[in-house]
Amino acid sequence: MITANPRPMSAAPLDGTPVRLFVSGGSAIASFWSEERCQKTFGAGDYRAGWYLLDDDAIELDDPTGWEPLVHDHACFENETMSLSPDLELNVLPPSAG
Description:
The chain is mainly β. Mean pLDDT is about 75; it is low at about 70-98. About 10% of the residues lie in helices and about 35% in strands. The longest helix is centred in the middle third of the chain and has 8 residues, at about 35-40. It has one domain. Strand 6 and strand 7 (about 90) form a beta hairpin. The protein has a five-stranded antiparallel β-sheet with strand order 4-3-2-1-5. The protein has a two-stranded antiparallel ribbon with strand order 6-7.
């Protein structure tokens, strides 16, 4: 269940823990990637720290408005289909649309 009162981004975990982020177009499961974590995982390169979708590390979520921890009874990723519209606004499709 999605909370009506998300936690402030200033309290979000920056250790790579997956959380549900709230953005203008809905919500998505993402984790924070630091520059150091990117370099350890992918090798040398010019990386930017930020929030990235859990199932697609090429898509960064800018300006999330809040977050909530994932709960064990709602950690199902297959039914949470994500798509990006042409203007790059994040949209969450209902499970039946996937």
